[in-house]
Amino acid sequence: MKRSLKNLNPLFILLFGLLMLAIQTTFLNIPSTGELQPEFILLIVIYLGLNRHEIEGVTLSFILGYLVELHSGAPRGSIQLAAVVVFIITKLLSQTIFIPSFISNMILVMSLTLVWRFIIGTCVWWTTNELDWAGHSIKFVIPAMILHGILNIPLTELLNKIDHWTGKESLRDTKKELKVN
Hints:
This protein is mostly helical.
């Protein structure tokens, strides 16, 4: 039973991403907050970068970026590009200099929020030649960074529970087993 659930883990991650996207675009889409709404898919992509192998993670990141794009007015390919770039940066940092801890995880999420916003904003500017997005987005970047740093904690716990329920080993656990053996 666990083996069949383990194989369905990517599907559960995508369904969880769809649920978070539905929450983000319906319940948290408050006009008065402007750009200050959580990007749950960004947090899921960061989780994938820390806990998945390259092929699985980049594929899921690409699909999640596409799902976000279906619900947004962003230029075609911009959110997919941002999701894949954030995954690659997370993966490279996790394999080289990232030391898992509460503070370093928050710093990573906050930094990658900036990267995410920069990539999407650059794509908007490139396709529309509008600079209006810059002033509007910049004033919300720091609050969004803080919001994502805080929201990353419960979202990571939920994703860990999905992985545990489906029997998916964490990439870190797999590395520890290889070092012990």
